Amino acid sequence: MAQHPPSPMSLPSSSPNYSSMEILLNQFQSFETIDPRTGDVIARISEGTKEDIDIAVKAARRAFDSGPWPRLSGTERAKIMMKFANLIDENIEELAALDAIDAGKLYHMCKALDIPSAANTLRYYAGAADKIHGNVLKPSRQFHAYTLMEPIGVVGHIIPWNFPTSMFFVKVSPCLAAGCTMVLKPAEQTPLSALFYAHLAKLAGIPDGVLNVVPGFGEIAGAAISSHMDIDAVSFTGSTQTGRKIMEAAAKSNLKQVSLELGGKSPLIIFDDADIEKATELALIGILFNKGEVCVASSRVFVQEGIYGEFEKKLVEKAKAWVVGDNFDHNVQQGPQVDKKQFEKILSYIEHGKREGATLLTGGKTVGNKGYFIEPTIFSNIKDDMLIAQDEIFGPVLALKKFKTIEEAIKSANNTRYGLAAGIVTKNLDIANTVSRSIRAGNIWINCYFAFEDDIPFGGYKMSGFGREYGLEALHKYLQVKSVVTPIYNSPW
Ligand code: ADP
Q1: Marked catalytic residue, from 261, 312, 375, 392
Q2: Which terminus of the chain has a smaller tally of CB atoms within 10 A, N or C?
Q3: Are 148 and 482 in contact (CB under 8 A)?
Q4: Is residue 8 predicted with pLDDT exceeding 90?
Q5: Dihedral sign, Cα of residue 371, residue 372, residue 378, residue 380
Q6: Cβ-contact 222, 186 below 8 angstroms
């Protein structure tokens, strides 16, 4: 739990305790979190400083060195994690509302997907907590040798704003199962659900000091985590630019273990034999899901020349019919971008695309006169070296390109500094196999997209980072191997 400062969350004017909260807030630095539908302030959040991170790390260190959590049996840890997961389910509507209001995410999607999937991620790793073991190594020699899998210690988690709940649990769940203690900093844009989860963790019985949530800014609280001398590992999800700073800080401080899940510019390659209806659906969801604020968004779509014309026509029709608006409305498909900074960044990329000579097929404008809404935007006549084909825009902006041969598609798809994901649409198994093995990316989706499951490892090649989330691979990030060797005298071998 957050030890210090207390985390006063209050509604700005309607809360009956507003005046006392205000007095409390005056004692601490605080920052505003805003509703991207309107730009209005939702709440003021106490801002974690370097000193606060230090206090949280001390609590986590104490909990690791002498607290019960790493010493409990895996079964005992699993029981508490299961209770935590059940509490998430019991509070699903409130949690969905917090992520929706803070991040501009679709409320119904948070309720149907983000929140229940996160509870299941906790359950998946609860199931793994009592199956952590080392190996007995080959016995045919004069030594008896075995390995122990030990928790890595105190872990720092720094998470982004696009999936506040999924990112929280993709980090915290395997880390808890491994028996580590931790300090987590949510993104400054979306601190609300993380604070609620800290509260639920306490209710579930996670001991004090094990899970410390400190909201604050990246340059201050985030940097204090990555450069801390008493944090053993840092797990980060966010931009490649920030990932580089985190790795540098880790190297300059105590060489803490680093894992980075960074940006992407993922290709979706559609071949002539594809079902055009299904392929346009995949391409549209691939870029517009969560308003394009997805590290694996299919922001580059390559379509083979035989179906290109029909595909482009259908895709544009569908993009024009896509409903942008209030993300609490069930009929809306796309809410506002997370904040003014992202909104302006996306619009400047759209302007850049026009200047670079790409053809704007649809979109490109803002929607409404308040908040941060942007039309689904599709550019065609893309050249691989254009900025809109190279940079991660993190918005509803698609770059569409025609190709002739499989070799040309592979070359274009790999013409990126990123390597997070790729999609392939074809009925031809040989093409699917060849392309899967030729694309330098950590995740390949054939005839599907965004196919996430708790046991499927996820992570990047190239400048999309290293280390894997999900699966037992993620559990191993929070464990370290100890080899124990003892001589055997008078061995019969
Ligand atoms: P964006 O620019 O899209 O907000 P970031 O990668 O900067 O993406 O943010 C992801 C997370 O990284 C957030 O929690 C943010 O506060 C944190 N962060 C930003 N800058 C730093 C930094 N210099 N050191 C550590 N964490 C940082």
Answers
A1: 261
A2: C
A3: yes
A4: no
A5: positive
A6: no
**Is the confidence at residue 17, as pLDDT, over 80?**
no
AA letter at 232: D
What is the Cα–Cα distance from 303 to 402, expressed in whole angstroms?
5
Distance between CA 9 and CA 12 in Å, rounded?
Answer: 9
- Write 365-369 long-range contacts (CB < 8 A, 24+): 367/324, 367/325, 368/325
ipTM of the complex: 0.99
Are 102 and 164 spatial neighbours (Cβ–Cβ below 8 Å)? yes
| Residue 218 Cα to ligand 1 middle (Å) | 5
Statement: residue 140 has pLDDT above 90:
no
Name the residue among 445, 421, 99 with its Cα closest to residue 261.
Answer: 421
- Strand, coil or helix: what is 274? coil
Flag whether the pTM goes above 0.90: yes
Averaged pLDDT for residues 475-493? 89
* Separation of alpha carbons 301 and 201, rounded Å: 42
Please report the pLDDT score of residue 9 as a whole number. 36
Do 4 and 46 meet the contact criterion of CB atoms below 8 Å apart? no
pLDDT value for 493: 57
Q: Are 417 and 437 in contact (CB under 8 A)?
A: no
Distance CA 409, CA 5 (A): 53
Nearest CA to ligand 1 atom 13: 187
Q: How many of the other CB atoms lie within 10 Å of CB of 493? A: 7
- Positive or negative torsion for Cα 196, 199, 200, 201: positive
For residue 23, is pLDDT > 80? no
Q: In the numeric block, which tokens belong to residue 398?
A: 């698609």
- Cα angle 128, 130, 132 (rounded to 5 degrees) comes to 75
Rounded CA separation 65/151 (Å): 11
End-to-end CA distance of the chain: 53
Mutate to test the pocket of ligand 1, among 242, 247, 258, 259 (most ligand atoms within 8 A of CB): 242
351 annotated active-site: no
Neighbours of 172 (CB within 10 A): 30
Q: Which residue has the tokens 């993104």?
A: 187
**Within 6 Å (CB) of ligand 1, which residues are found?**
158-160, 185, 187-188, 217-219, 222-223, 226, 238-239, 242, 245-246
The arithmetic mean of pLDDT across residues 368-373, rounded, is 97
Rg (CA), the chain: 24
- The CA distances from residue 362 to 45, 300, 358, in Å, are 39, 16, 12
